[in-house]
């Protein structure tokens, strides 16, 4: 049996969290990532209770060096990487569209645009 090694960014809430739980139930080895260490450790404990091998790596996908380190740590821990799932993102600044600035609009897209997977 070939157990998948899965890296999930933005894994601490929402779709990322649900994705991590789904892969854990399938028996995958999982590296979850996000910016909040305490929440990351709590989710790792939950994933391990489901029988998954899981690790948390604190990272901010807006910084390319964090993303590179995240991939490197995943490969160092599990020997390979089979799937990378980017769920990191932000809904931006809540409010009317007419109240948004160029900076708040750009920040919404900057979070996800810096994550790039390459072979």
Strand order of the largest sheet: 3-2-1-4
Number of strands: 4
Structural class based on helices, strands and sheet pairing: alpha/beta
Strand content range: 15-25%
Labels describing this entry:
single chain, 119 residues, alpha/beta, 4-stranded parallel beta sheet, 4 helices, 4 strands, elongated, disordered C terminus
Tell me what you see in this structure.
It is a single chain. With 119 residues, the protein is α/β, with parallel strands linked by helices. 44% of the residues lie in helices and 18% in strands. It contains 4 helices and 4 strands. The protein has helices at residues 14-25, 37-49, 64-78, 102-113, and strands at 5-9, 29-34, 53-58, 83-86. A 4-stranded parallel beta sheet has the order 3-2-1-4, sandwiched between helices. The longest helix is centred in the middle third of the chain and has 15 residues, at 64-78. The chain is elongated, with a radius of gyration of 15 Å. The protein starts with a strand and ends in a 6-residue tail after the last helix.
Structure described in brief:
With 119 residues, the protein is of the alpha/beta class. Helix content is 44%, strand content 18%.
């Amino acid at each position: 049996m070939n157990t998948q090694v899965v890296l999930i960014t933005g894994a601490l809430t929402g779709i990322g969290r649900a994705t991590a739980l789904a892969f854990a139930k399938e028996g995958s080895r999982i590296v979850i990532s996000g910016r909040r260490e305490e929440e990351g450790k709590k989710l790792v404990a939950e994933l391990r209770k489901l029988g998954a091998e899981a690790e948390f790596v604190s990272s901010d996908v807006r910084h390319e060096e964090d993303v590179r380190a995240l991939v490197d740590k995943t490969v160092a821990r599990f020997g390979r990487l089979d799937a990378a799932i980017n769920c990191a993102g932000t809904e931006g600044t809540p409010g009317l569209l007419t109240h948004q600035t160029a900076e708040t609009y750009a920040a919404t897209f900057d979070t996800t645009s810096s994550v790039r997977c390459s072979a």
